[in-house]
Amino acid sequence: MRRGDFLEGYILDLIGSEIVEVAMDQIQDTLERELALTGLHITNRFSPGYCGWRVAEQQKLFSFFPKDFCGVTLTEHSLMQPIKSVSGIIGIGKDVRRKAYACQACEMAQCIYRGRAASP
Predict the structure, then answer these.
(1) Domain membership of residue 90 as a residue range
(2) In terms of Cα–Cα distance, which of 117, 88, 112 is closest to 13?
(3) How far is residue 7 CA from its own chain's centroid?
(4) Which ranges of the chain does DSSP label H, i.e. alpha helix?
(5) Predicted confidence (pLDDT) per residue in 63-82, tens digit
(6) What confidence tier does 2 reach under pLDDT thresholds 50, 70, 90?
(7) How many domains does the structure of the chain reveal?
(8) What is the pLDDT at residue 36?
């Protein structure tokens, strides 16, 4: 982007986003398998910026962790640095379930999960 090659920058940004999502899918799947051995289940992951959860709420989420936890910080506008970082929550319990994403219930037309099948 700094060199003015916006198409290349856009493509690299898309690739980076997809890599992060695949990594998070793998982490979530591993967590689900490991917890199943103890009789616990997980919910879908949910992050600031999803389905109306304001990105500014990341300030509250990050307040639960020590400063510079894992080398990820927030800008004054609540965006994470490094850019391709992910924050969020996953519920854990005996009576919770991971479900297919309910896109029809979400107001975010540009959501990355819209039309995507989840692997519960």
Answers:
(1) 6-105
(2) 112
(3) 25
(4) 6-36, 58-62
(5) 999 987 899 999 999 999 99
(6) confident
(7) 1
(8) 97
The per-residue pLDDT for range 5-37, each reduced to its tens digit, is 899 999 999 999 999 999 999 999 999 999 999
Instruction: Report the predicted TM-score, pTM, of the whole model to 2 decimal places.
Output: 0.75
Q: Are 115 and 103 in contact (CB under 8 A)?
A: yes
User: CB under 8 Å to 58, separation ≥6 — which residues?
Assistant: 48, 74, 78, 80, 87
Please check whether residue 5 is in contact with residue 11, taking contact to mean a CB–CB distance below 8 angstroms: no
Mean pLDDT within 110-119: 60
Peptide bond into 82 cis (omega under 30): yes
Which pair of tokens denotes residue 34?
């490991």
Q: Name the residue among 53, 59, 63, 64 with its Cα closest to residue 76.
A: 59
Contacts of residue 74, defined as CB under 8 A and 6 or more positions apart, other chains included, come to 58, 59, 62, 80, 81
Considering the domain boundaries, does residue 67 fall inside one?
yes
CATH code of the domain containing 78:
3.40.109.40
Helix (H) or strand (E) holding 1: none
